[in-house]
Design goal:
Number of domains: 2
Domain DAGKc: 1-124
Keywords: Kinase, Transferase
Shape: globular
CATH architecture of the largest domain: Sandwich
Strand content: 35-45%
CATH class of the largest domain: Mainly Beta
GO molecular function: kinase activity; methylglyoxal synthase activity
Largest sheet: 10 strands, mixed
Number of helices: 8
Pfam families: DAGK_cat, YegS_C
Protein name: Sphingosine kinase
Helix content: 25-40%
CATH topology of the largest domain: Tumour Suppressor Smad4
Order of helices and strands: EHEHEHEHHEEEHHEEEEHEEEEE
Radius of gyration: 19 Å
């Protein structure tokens, strides 16, 4: 097994790097880690494959993992995971330990599982995607953090208030597998497999091998009702009446009157042309698990 380690330098303080490298070495991984800014992660993964790597270990948050997975999915090569981010949704749902030393030992053991990935207009995601309220909040939040230096939590609170104040429901036409329907909604959520608990921030999945998209449509409601439903989602208290779940979905087309839409993809916001085509790629990614 030829292994390359790519670690996102932005995922933690520089003072942690020596400890992380020691944990990697202690687990018996002989490859020297490459520390890189997030924007170069995918390029390094491609270079690793070109040099004959059979396993690429990605260290970082969900965005880093998605970038590496986009390169590896469908190649037969394997991804290892060192969870260096804040939330680490994908690593957590695979049962990978949060402790870096323990996670490195999992990589060294080399047990491989094939898991599903999802895509929207060719953009791969491991966790989820959303349109409507959530991507607008993320854009506002990140702008505040860059310009005003606000903490992530404070910026998100301010962004939520401002988004609620100006947001209007959007009318969408959904093609679910081969069935069409029109909806008016403030939020459409699409997950890679079934989210059993919650949809924003604290979701978890029992399986990443079911081969289906998990689709939730927030019900159209008053502005006050919208605020209440979104807050319940944020704090893991979603009620059955807040959302409509679409089941058995393997492909989803979302058509809007707008030519372009901001789309959240694993926490990053990307501008995409309408229509949005969501698909599931069953067991397309080899990943090392406990």
């Amino acid at each position: 097994m030829t292994t390359h380690l790519i670690l996102n330098a932005a995922s933690g303080p520089a003072s942690d790097r020596a400890a992380i490298e020691q944990a990697i070495a202690a687990a018996g991984l002989s490859a020297r880690p490459t520390w890189v800014d997030g924007g170069n992660v995918a390029d390094l993964a491609r270079q690793a494959l070109d040099r004959g790597a059979t396993t690429v270990v990605a260290g970082g948050g969900d965005g880093t993992l998605s970038s590496v997975a986009a390169v590896l999915a469908g190649t037969g090569m394997t991804m290892g995971i060192l969870p260096l981010g804040t939330l680490n949704h994908f690593a957590r749902d695979l049962g990978i330990p949060a402790d870096i030393g323990e996670a490195a030992q999992v990589v060294a053991a080399g047990k491989v599982r094939q898991v599903d990935v999802a895509e929207v207009n060719g953009h791969l995601f491991l966790n989820n995607s959303a349109i409507g309220l959530y991507p607008l909040m993320v854009v506002d939040r990140d702008l505040q953090r860059r310009r005003l230096g606000r903490t992530k939590k404070r910026a998100m609170i301010v962004a939520s208030i401002r988004t609620f104040a100006r947001f209007k429901h959007q009318r969408l036409r959904l093609t679910v597998n081969d069935r069409e329907e029109s909806v008016e909604t403030p939020l459409l959520f699409v997950g890679n497999n079934d989210y059993r608990v919650d949809i924003i921030g604290r979701g978890s999945r029992a399986s990443l091998q079911d081969g289906e998209l998990f689709v939730l449509v927030m019900r159209s409601t008053s502005r006050l009702g919208l605020v209440a439903a979104t807050l319940r989602a944020l704090f893991n208290r979603t009620r059955s009446g807040d959302m409509v779940q679409l089941t058995g979905v393997t492909s989803l087309r979302v058509t809007s009157r707008r030519s372009h839409l901001p789309v959240a993809v694993d926490g990053e916001v990307v501008g995409m042309a309408s229509p949005l085509d969501y698909t599931i790629r069953p067991r397309a990614l080899n990943v090392i698990v406990p």
